[in-house]
Amino acid sequence: MGNQEVAEPKGHSVDFLLAEYQSHRESFWRSEELGERRVNFFITIATAVLAALAIREEGTWAGGQVDPIFFYGLGALLLFGVVTLMRLIRRNLVSHEHARAMGRIRRYFADRDEEILRHLYFEPRDDWPYRKKEWNQIFSLGTGGLVETVSLVNNLIVAALCALLAVSLSGCIIGGLLGLVGFIGAWIVQFIYVKWRYDKERPTADEIRFPRN
Which of 11, 121, 186, 208 would be a feasible disulfide site paired with 127, CB 3.0-4.6 Å? Predict the structure, then answer.
């Protein structure tokens, strides 16, 4: 911006960019809503599976033996949780792409009328926002968003699987300890995966046209 010369906006250019802005805005909200629906569906399925397993629990612990249906059910639920987590990560990345695209369009109008800058809540730039995870967040729930919610449910499923496996082999005390180890291990693995995806998909220098001044 600054003192650089810019051409006066043409009517068809303004109409085109306004339509483009609206398209990105609608896509952003569709992506957000899709993520929420996907998590709600996962939570519903998880609740149903766990309720079914709880009903079947009576009489399955005799002699320290665990009915294999528990492993099959929880294993399938964990697989679904992992897929849901992967889709949520992709949804977050796409949502932020739309947000950066809207920032780029805002820049077009701000370059031609700097008075607009005083009224913009979000800066007219396309190098932000982007997703990131810092190592100091590894044992926190962050903002408590959808990714963290699904990760937490996956952790509980892994902990249950580890505990059931230990109970079937050794006993309840070791089962509790192995469940805790499984919970912590699953949390770390998922955190590393999310961080890797966010770092990998971060906008590169050649993709940014209007960084913050």
Answer: 208
pLDDT tens-digit map of 22-39: 999 999 999 999 999 999
3-state secondary structure of 10: coil
Q: Are 128 and 211 in contact (CB under 8 A)?
A: no
d(CA 193, CA 34): 22
Mean pLDDT computed over every residue of the chain: 87
Report the range of poorest mean pLDDT among 34-38, 162-166, 200-204.
162-166
Tokens 């700097």, located at residue: 114
Residue given tokens 């890797």 in the structure block = 196
Helices 146-169/172-200 angle, 10° precision:
150
**What does pTM read for this prediction?**
0.86
Name the one residue in this structure whose structure tokens are 């947000």: 99
Phi-psi region of 212 (alpha: psi -120 to 50; beta: other; left: phi over 0): beta
Distance CA 184, CA 175 (A): 14
Of 21, 13, 213, 9, which Cα lies nearest the Cα of 117? 213
Q: Give the DSSP H or E segment for 49.
A: helix 11-56
Q: How far apart (Å, rounded) are the C-alpha atoms in residues 64 and 167?
A: 6
Beta-carbon contacts of 21 under 8 Å, excluding residues fewer than 6 positions away, are 102, 105, 106
